[in-house]
Amino acid sequence: CAAGRVEHARALGERVMQAFTQPFRLDGREFFLTLSIGVCRFPHDGADISALLVNAENAMFLAKRNGRNNYQVYLHDLNSASAERLEMETALRHAVTRNELVLHYQPSVDIAAGRITAVEALVRWAHPVRGMVAPDKFIPLADETGLIGEIGHWVLLEACAQTRRWHDAGLGGLKVSVNVSAVQFRQCDLTQIVAEALARTGLPPWCLDLEITETVLMQDADATIATLLALKAMGVCISVDDFGTGYSSLAYLKRFPIDTLKIDKSFMGDVVCDGHNAAIVRTVIALAKNLDLESIAEGVETEAQVDFLRAEGCDRLQGYYFSKPLPAQKLAEFVRAGA
Ligand code: C2E
Ligand code: MG
Ligand code: MG
């Protein structure tokens, strides 16, 4: 909007909205369209085309968030928190298509086998300006905006493809765990996406493990059981991530077809001085054993923790003590060196 005044921008927005209140006729049928318009002004809101487009897009996402079928004029004084959020949201929309997402892989050690048998795929966002953004900073936003569907799809395909490449390169049997958020679990047809990823990459289903949270188990139990049963029928494994931090109803553990309990890293803190956490961890390991489930401890950082977990009979360990999450290339070297 070259006129530069907010009133002009608003008037223009009104006129376009007005034009779309009439139906369009196509092939003798009537179509009603709704609009979400973002407006920004030159030079007030940006000195060049790309800055203007970013700000117009930000304003458009605000219009969408305000229930669609409205227009928003970009305002500099959007408070800085919501401006930052909008900027992140806009950038995140392009992250997949611009190949800005990367997976790092953290190994876990199987105590009985005495070696690395699995890795967890952990997504990072190589943001063009902010650098590597941790998943805690953008997965919640992806959940809120629905972008988790696209991101989760990419993560699953990439994790399966990479693991298949490792198999072909001599690391046969290596398993990969992929995190699935509660929103993603509800939003997507997970069985179809998983089937597609396995078919496209040729990864054996038993080498794929899906990490879900207790939240997933507590919502809509019947639908969850149906999805999990379908995944199990394909041969895929299911883990409960961050176990012990959600609403743990012990009854559900028997109802759901799960394979593994992943003990949350927040319980590792004082396990070695035999505090409350030691009691919790000991109990979860025993619970897993009694229900014939595998137990994994995450966030293992010290040798003393390793000794404790080993003595308690934990099946698998994951944490900085062994390795941080690594880029794919480094992970392969790490596994080979330890084999
Ligand atoms: P999570 O699945 O529980 O993953 C474990 C987190 O603990 C990872 O953080 C990992 O780097 C960190 N960690 C590993 N070992 C240690 C340790 O010894 N000490 C400490 N203090 N931390 C350790 P990261 O990579 O930042 O991931 C954070 C969370 O983001 C994950 O928690 C998971 O919930 C979520 N996330 C990551 N990737 C994805 C994804 O592809 N999809 C979805 N939906 N969520 C993801
Ligand atoms: Mg996880
Ligand atoms: Mg976890």
Q: How would you sum up this structure, described in words?
A:
It is a single chain. The chain has 339 residues and is α/β, with parallel strands linked by helices. Helices cover 47% and strands 21% of the residues. The chain has 13 helices and 14 strands. The chain has helices at 6-19, 49-65, 80-95, 135-145, 148-168, 182-187, 190-201, 214-218, 221-234, 250-255, 276-290, 303-312, 328-338; strands at residues 24-26, 29-31, 36-39, 70-73, 101-110, 115-127, 131-133, 175-179, 208-213, 237-243, 260-263, 294-298, 316-318, 326-327. An 8-stranded mixed barrel has the order 5-6-8-9-10-11-12-13, surrounded by 4 helices. A two-stranded antiparallel ribbon has the order 1-2. Helix 3 (80-95) crosses helix 4. The longest helix is centred in the middle third of the chain and has 21 residues, at 148-168. It is elongated. The termini are far apart. The relative contact order is 0.09. The model has no long low-confidence stretch (mean pLDDT 91). One magnesium ion binds next to loops.
